[in-house]
Write a structure and sequence with these properties.
This protein has 2 domains: 124 residues, Carbonic anhydrase (Beta-carbonic Anhydrase, Chain A, 3-Layer(aba) Sandwich); 34 residues, no CATH class. The chain is built from 7 helices and 5 strands; from the N terminus they run H-E-H-E-H-E-H-H-H-H-E-E. It is an alpha/beta fold. Strands 2-1-3-4-5 form a 5-stranded mixed β-sheet, sandwiched between helices. The radius of gyration is 19 Å and the shape is globular. The termini are far apart.
Length: 187
Amino acid sequence: MRLIDEILTFNQQFVDEKQYEEFTTTKFPNKRMVLLTCMDTRLVELLPRALNLRNGDVKIVKNAGALVTHPFGSIMRSLLVAVYELQAEEVLIIGHHDCGMSGMKPDYILEKMRKRGKSEQALDTISYAGVDVKEWLKGFDNVEESVAHSVRMVKKHPLMPNDIPVHGLVIEPGTGKLEVVVNGYEG
């Protein structure tokens, strides 16, 4: 059975048996927080448990590396929508040790793209659109510095309210242990 068929078969049973009822909540976060974290598979269940979060407690935004790389990109837009429209009163950015974005080299990814059939013309098209592909694909060398950078991007954003605390943490994906990089209450 193909993966999508497996998912749809399970979903039909999930709906028919009304298993969704235990997850019923509103669109507003109970803990009035929006969380930006990495899309790493180890964090899917570990992170909410390590933070004592339940369904409905927070808005969660995920991307590769928990990075805010552009002040007017979709990540920043999502954080602003959470604050202005969805009653989030704090922002929490959580990176993690052993992240796939740590030390990622753009040339390595570009080579993989070429091996999977992407032409130089396709790569050039992105550059012509004004995107520095190597900068866009670049990872980070230090997760604490990366988290601190994302916190600064959010805190200093011209549209983010000054009274919103922006916290930065790093989680250990093997144990769930958190380390504070930036305490948003302290400045």
